[in-house]
Amino acid sequence: MLASDGKIVKNDLSTFQTDLKNLLDRWKYASPMPAENVFPTDILNAFREIGALNALLSHEEGGLNLCRSLEGGFALLTLLRRAGYLNLSLGRCLEGHVNVVRLIELYGTSEQRHEFAQRLRSGILAGIWVTDGVPPVTIKQENRGYRLAGIKGFASGVTQVKLALITAITPQGHSIMVLAPTTEFGRRQSGPGKLMGMQASGTGAYDFTDIVISSDCILGSVGDYLRQPEFSAGAWRGSAVALGGMDRLVDLLRQELLDRERANNPHQLYRLGEALILQKTASMWVQEAVKAAYAAKMKPADVIATVNLARLAVERAALELITLVQRSLGVSAFVRGRAVELVMRDLMTYLRQPAPDEALTEAAAWFVNHDWPKGEL
Ligand SMILES: Cc1cc2nc3c(=O)[nH]c(=O)nc-3n(C[C@H](O)[C@H](O)[C@H](O)COP(=O)(O)OP(=O)(O)OC[C@H]3O[C@@H](n4cnc5c(N)ncnc54)[C@H](O)[C@@H]3O)c2cc1C
Q1: 360-376, pLDDT tens digit by residue?
Q2: How far is the CA of 100 from the centre of ligand 1 (A)?
Q3: How many CA atoms lie within 13 A of 161 on its CB side?
Q4: End residue of a domain, out of 219, 246, 262
Q5: Distance of CA 126 to CAs 240, 317, 371, Å?
């Protein structure tokens, strides 16, 4: 699939989907339970080897347009879902990487798009670090460039990421996107503290104080990061990763019930049926969200409200699934170091995405006055 220069030469999404399926099959049985605080470099390399990072790029840059077309969006859903299945921390980091690709495609100049594509083809992982630490990141113009100051407080893959898209506040109080290098060891900090789950994501903090950047590193215009509908629509990707974690939990539940010869018990079957309904419900919601996110003609407010509801539907389904798994497996689901226990902790942590109340009530406020988007009924 890859030419010697690293470009994808076979423009074939179905081949890519097959490669993703084979990768999942290979890793889901082969990999022993990873240490919970070690970044899964080997699985990331497996994604690199099938060209998954290059596939994100546009056709012009030798990729498969995963961030641009509905067809590509469904392949991206498979990619993120499978990554989440194998390792939620990896899924989180890949999802951040995809977000950077997407924002550069939307707001970058042609030079920035090309330059970034070249860097991606060298295999680097990018991160999106927008959550501020103390003090928040600011940007100030100087004679020869722009000087940054401040800390990003949630930085996934802080030791893996080589380039971050961050937001910075201008002296006028506006927010602007900046592409900044993140390779200096001494700038890495411990971040929000020891999280209950997702430790393998290496979520730390990074101090940008006194990094000087050129104007080429500024992406888009003031306010682009929060520009709608993209800002809310992009949340479907995090839901796709969480869905992968749900897939894994359902598989672990089925397997353990079979191994312990408890699968024929009617109460267990009842719960398993409920679990399968939750998994399928979440899957259908994510697919709706992908369609909305890539819909050329849907009203922006419909897109935002649909993806917000999808995000909350997946969150609720995942939380209910965790409860069912705990009830079905009993204390064995609470034994440290077992896959089921780790996946539940990772998933519970990963589901904490910003402003869930707002996402739900804003969607409700829209749909109280509007029907579902055309074609839904
Ligand atoms: C493993 C992990 C990795 C992460 N990696 C990154 C990263 O790489 N880059 C990055 O930028 N961020 C990252 N984050 C941070 C993430 O994007 C969110 O900022 C964070 O998870 C928000 O979670 P929260 O539950 O604290 O959200 P909150 O929005 O604080 O929500 C908590 C509760 O408060 C409510 N609430 C929200 N706002 C208000 C308000 N104004 N008044 C009253 N109630 C309110 C919510 O509805 C909810 O009930 C990461 C987080 C995790 C867990």
Answers
A1: 999 999 999 999 987 65
A2: 19
A3: 34
A4: 219
A5: 19, 30, 39
**Domain interval for residue 349:** 230-367
Looking at the CA of residue 157, tell me the nearest atom of ligand 1: 8
pTM score, two decimals? 0.95
In angstroms, rounded to a whole number, what is the distance separating the alpha carbons of residues 234 and 28? 27
Asked, for residue 20, whether it belongs to a domain, the answer is yes
Say how far residue 165 (Cα) sits from the centre of its chain: 14
Picking from 219, 254, 286, the residue at the C-terminal end of a domain is 219
Q: What is the pLDDT of residues 9-25, one digit of tens each?
A: 445 898 999 999 999 98
Whether 362 is in the pocket of ligand 1, judged by its Cβ within 6 Å, is no
99 lines ligand 1 (CB under 6 A): no
Shared-domain flag, residues 205 and 258: no
237 and 92 Cβ atoms separated by less than 8 Å: no
> 166 CB under 6 A from ligand 1?
no
Nearest residue (by CA) to ligand 1, atom 38, is 355
Q: What is the mean pLDDT of each run of 10 residues along the chain (377 residues)?
A: 47 87 84 80 93 93 92 96 96 97 96 92 94 97 93 95 97 96 94 93 96 95 95 97 98 97 97 98 98 93 97 98 98 94 97 97 97 74
